[in-house]
Amino acid sequence: MKRRLIIVQAVALLLLALASCSAKPEKSKVTVFAMDTVIYLEAYGEGAQAALDEAAEKLYFLDELLSATKEDSEISKINKSAGSFVPISDEVIKQLEAALEVSRRSGGAFDVSVLPLVNLWGFGTEGAHVPAAEEIEAALQYVDYGKIGLEGSSVRLAQGMSITLGAIAKGYASQELSEMLKGRGISSAILSLGGNVQAIGSKPDGLKWRVALRDPVSAAETAGVFELSDMAAVTSGGYERYFEQDGKVYHHILDPKTGYPAEGGLISVTIVCDNGMTADALSTALFVLGEDKAIEYWRDYGGFEAVLITDDGRMLVTEGLRDSFKKSGESYSLLYVTRNGGDKCVKYQTGR
Ligand code: ADP
Ligand code: MG
Q1: What is the rounded average pLDDT of the residues 25-39?
Q2: pTM of the predicted structure, to 2 decimals
Q3: Which atom of ligand 1 is nearest to the CA of 12?
Q4: Which atom of ligand 1 sits closest to the CA of residue 68?
Q5: CA-to-CA distance for 75 and 165, rounded, in angstroms?
Q6: What are 232-289's pLDDT values in tens digits?
Q7: What CA–CA distance (Å, rounded) separates 213 from 3?
């Protein structure tokens, strides 16, 4: 059996360099490795360095609290205590509440109780491999967000269940940091946590932050550029963490219905939303839902915009991004998704 493990912590969204400007306020920055990814924070103005140092500490703290692989994390404690109620922190309550809402709205496409499947597939380890169909069947019986009992500040999982906040924690962290930095008087900053970017205000020169969307097929290319202020942009893609076995690629975003990597025809999903945590949960949920249901979700609930790249070369952009997203290159044909298509009948308008 030919097996090759590839873990690429690729950065789906890249910050584009600031144009030089003479009277620029001082730039402060910090780079940390936490939450399994390289995190880069940049802020401007008085007190920015101290605020970023505090932000870095907070990231290490959240990593210890939220990791599904660290033995002493709160998530590991919840998992080890499946069957009984465990008191949990405000940080975990907030994420579970948001996760459960997206689970309900997506009909279970998003489900933090996928950990038994993630472990079975071995994503993120040297032992990543395609499990036997019976093993997947067996693990699937423990995947059910409906059996997560959240009561006040305690949670209880049914016996055999385990959870991971892998699809929401970085977005939660960027949202928290953004609020903390604003509270310290920072009005211009950009936070980049792997595929999660969150902009505070605009660039110090008053123009919007420019964030590039990586081409999911040709890693060195840019598929488009967002112009953002006070907004998060989060990308989920099958190309970010995956392994190859017998010539087939298996990525880390799982369909909780089948137990296999989601195959909804999308290869990259970016959500633009004023809340980083919501954006993170939705990027994973819409990736699993696939084209038609993802668009239905956007039409039904709104509150965010999206760029979906399909495996047949289309780039579907929700109409709220007409002014703030520009496609780059000719690899994809751009179509705008409009609100008035009706539930079943997906209507696009061609764009350039
Ligand atoms: P990344 O963490 O690479 O930025 P995502 O935000 O899409 O990407 O999260 C993927 C991670 O979430 C996986 O590594 C896994 O731990 C977990 N996960 C996989 N499938 C699902 C799912 N359907 N619902 C919720 N979490 C998932
Ligand atoms: Mg996510």
Answers
A1: 95
A2: 0.93
A3: 4
A4: 16
A5: 8
A6: 999 999 877 888 999 999 999 999 999 999 999 999 999 999 999 999 999 999 999 9
A7: 30
Q: Would the CB of 236 count as within 6 Å of ligand 1?
A: yes
pLDDT band at 21 (very low <50, low <70, confident <90, very high): low
Burial classification of residue 151, based on how many CB atoms lie within 10 Å of its CB (0-12 exposed, 13-18 middle, 19 or more buried): exposed
Structure tokens at 92: 């975990």
Fold of 70-157: T-fold (1.10.3980)
Is 193 in contact with 31 (CB distance < 8 Å)?
no
The token pair that represents 183 in the structure block:
């509270």
Q: Among candidates 272, 276, 311, which has minimal Cα distance to 291? A: 311
Nearest ligand 1 atom to the CA of 110 is 24
Query: Can you read off the two tokens belonging to residue 105?
Result: 């709205």
* Rg over CA atoms, the chain: 20
The CA distances from residue 180 to 28, 149, 177, 200, 245, in Å, are 16, 30, 5, 11, 44
CA of 253 to the centre of ligand 1 (A): 5
280 within ligand 1 shell (Cβ under 6 A):
yes
